[in-house]
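User: I'm writing a tutorial on reading structure tokens. Could you give me a worked example: one chain, its sequence, then its tokens, then a sentence or two explaining what the tokens reveal?
Assistant: Sure. Here is the example chain.
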Amino acid sequence: MGGLVYYSSESGNTRRFVERLGLPATRIPISPKDGPVSVDRPYVLIVPSYADGDGRGAVPKGIIRFLNDPENRKNIRGVIGAGNTNFGEMYCRGAKIVAEKCAVRMLYRFELLGTNEDVLAVRTGLEKFWRETQ
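And here are its predicted structure tokens:
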């Protein structure tokens, strides 16, 4: 099975979701002073969205820094979005942008820290995804 990489802000919603998955995962640092992360194997990226009403800032800067590394960008295989449906059209906008720019599939979306059903769906979906892509 491939890897899982995620970004989580200080609120920790995405981190708590990833912990509930119970899968090995690499966290992208919030601050650039924490150093870069390199991933040398295929992975799925979990992207939370923090857009303003016009979509600015939808992709967290930590994810942009991470994907600016050609090795990291080369290994991305899919995207899972986290967001808040209160943001309407901006719901999971960051994940949509990353999927389009990296030419990979958007595999799933969940709201805030996800439900138990979301955790099960992502776990099951990732198992199927990695079986099909190997």
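What the tokens reveal: The helical segments are 13-21, 61-67, 70-75, 93-102, 116-133. The CA atoms of residues 29 and 62 lie 7 Å apart.
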